[in-house]
Specification:
about 350 residues, alpha/beta, Rossmann fold
Length: about 350
Amino acid sequence: MSEIKAYGAHSATEELVPLKIERRELQPKDIAIEILYCGVCHSDIHTARSEWGPARYPVVPGHEIIGKVTAVGAEVKNFKPGDAVGVGCLVDSCQKCPACEDGLEQYCENGATYTYGSPDKISGGHTLGGYSEKIVVDESFVLRIPENLDLAKTAPLLCAGITTWSPLKHWNVKAGEKIGVVGLGGLGHMGIKFARAMGAHVVMITTSEKKGEDAKKLGADEVLISKDSEAMKSHASSFDFLLNTIPVNHDVEPYLNLLKRDKTMVLVGAIEPLSNVNGGTLIRKRRNLAGSLIGGIRETQEMLDFCGEHQVLPEVEMIDMQGINQAWDRVVKADVKYRFVIDMKSLK
């Protein structure tokens, strides 16, 4: 085991502070990675503050990791020292169940191991994430970063990016289709960029005219203000797909009415009970309400390759590690456009 620097929280009510953690020695299929950049996800905050249930402390968050390979285990074949790589939300799974065999490790039927906060099946204790100098990961969960992507901006693709890419691909969004992205934030802004790059006609659906203006700059073709009942009626039954990124409980009924027959709205933001799901709205046009969780390793690599080909990158604000607590306060207030990324050299 080797000791490294990190930032973490010791309880749900304490700020993040510097601490020391240990990383395991290389196993035959492991890759050691020096972390260069780490994205800041709202999930980091929810977990550290035990808002999704009791957390395992200390919490060292971070699952949008970009770095350089420093060493590889004896059986590693696909990576070498110096390679630019990424680690997303997953670092292990059973790799034997039907979900894993389908390349959907996030749905592992025996329980996926998340990058932080999961029982660590190799080292014991629990996993510790990317707010740290280094990480050691099985090569099956390491991603190759296209050479033409700006590493400093790539980190959020590994959570916000794959969370929006996976449903767009799974529901087979096509060029020319009318696609609605509900809510503009870290997820929503990536939804716009991906749908636009796929050739869809993209409509940002928001309560805020100001956010609508921002959405146009990001590539949205139209803006629909959801508080405008007449505008909502004029778009009724006209959408081929809706990506709903609203992160809290809300009334989904107005959005479901926007779907054509047999079309789907996918939830990626609200991990909690929803109010007012009217069965009649679904039944009358055989509409679908579904959910989607991040993405598997195979599709995450496909997303990264697509981003390299089409130069799709998130909008980021760089911060030093020492500014993380202030950044978290701003995330909670939705005061960032649209994702913080930590420059990890500030930790050294």
